[in-house]
Amino acid sequence: MSTFASTNPRQRQTNLKRIPSRDAPQKSKSLTLSWTEIPEWQRDNDHILTGYRHVQNSWTGCAASIFGYLHNETVNIHSHLIGAVIFLFFIATFQSSNIAQYSQATWLDTAVFAIFLCSAVFCLVASAGYHTVTCHSQSVSDHCHAFDYAGIVTLTVGSFFPCIYYGFFCEPHLQILYLSGITITGIGAAYIVLDPEYGKPTHRGARTKVFIGLGLSAVFPVSHLMVSHGISKLVQEMGFGWLMASGGLYIFGALLYANRIPERLAPGKFDYFFASHQIFHVCVVLAALAHYVCVLTSFHHWHSGAGVC
Predict the structure, then answer these.
(1) Record-annotated residues binding Zn(2+) (predicted)?
(2) Torsion of Cα atoms, 163 then 169 then 173 then 176, to 10°
């Protein structure tokens, strides 16, 4: 009689149970996961098919993913970390490289630039931080997403302060009017986008419209400036071209993000590089830099003697 035939039936059943089924979900040994392997709460863009991090439930695990390995959030994290470092450098050098040039510069010059530069750093750090911890847990991801949105609103509002201050340099009452208006509008936008309902992937378009609408509130003071100063003076002496470039970059990036282009056109091809969210991040940094050039141009315009009230 063969050995197989003499095996105890109960022992044979036990051995069969130890054989894993092909259909049973296996724990991935890879550093990253595919769309089908991640939990529902991590799913945001179904055109990004690979490169997802494991749920860490650990701050250390999230931090290790910043430089430890390539994943589909790497570019989002690094692009805004680099941007934050650039603007921290501007904060550290602005006083000595700009304010110190003009004896007539006042604390108001320092204040409006500080508001803009600090709002840029807050936005970029909040964004990089959020994208770092999206793999921590659902609760942490949801709460940190609110900081990401708050950063966008803060940067938008903060960008207005030097623009309005130098645009209406000789008209303090208009400075107060427009800065009060944009601040109130920003508070309203923050209230909308921080609502947990708007944090859902299905509301990406609505969020984008709120952000674009907040940015387009600049139409009113800019139109006023075009009438009072003239387009030629704004472009040639006050950096208006840089302001338009900044606005164009924001809108371009936001539209790509809202429509998930280019990954919508070729799912899986832009998982690690050149996805819409990554392009949007780069556009945000470039737009903030263009805005800085604009307000620096206006600052020098008024304090070099070219502009006279």
Answers:
(1) 131, 277, 281
(2) 30
- Written as six digits, the tokens of 106 are 């006042």
AA letter at 26: Q
Residue 182 has, within 13 A of its CA and on its CB side, a CA count of 28
> Where do the DSSP E strands lie in the chain?
32-33, 52-53
Block residue for tokens 């390539």? 70
Contact 110, 143 (CB under 8 A): no
- Coil, helix or strand at residue 20: coil
Domain ranges of the chain: 75-303
What is 75-303's CATH number, 1.10.1030, 1.25.40, 2.40.128, 1.20.1070? 1.20.1070
Q: pLDDT tens string for the chain (309 positions)?
A: 444 444 455 554 444 444 444 333 445 579 999 999 999 999 999 999 999 999 999 999 999 999 999 999 999 999 999 999 999 999 999 999 999 999 999 999 999 999 999 999 999 999 999 999 999 999 999 889 888 988 989 999 999 999 999 999 999 999 999 999 899 888 888 888 787 766 666 666 677 777 777 877 888 898 999 998 888 888 888 899 999 999 899 889 989 998 999 999 999 999 999 999 999 999 999 999 999 999 999 999 999 877 778
Residue 281 counted as an annotated binding residue: yes
Structure tokens at 224: 């006023």
End-to-end, the C-alpha distance of the chain in Å comes to: 111
Q: What does pTM read for this prediction?
A: 0.85
Euclidean distance between CA atoms 232 and 274, whole angstroms: 37
The distance of Cα 130 from the centroid of its chain, to the nearest Å, equals 9
> Whole-angstrom Cα distance, residue 249 to residue 215?
12
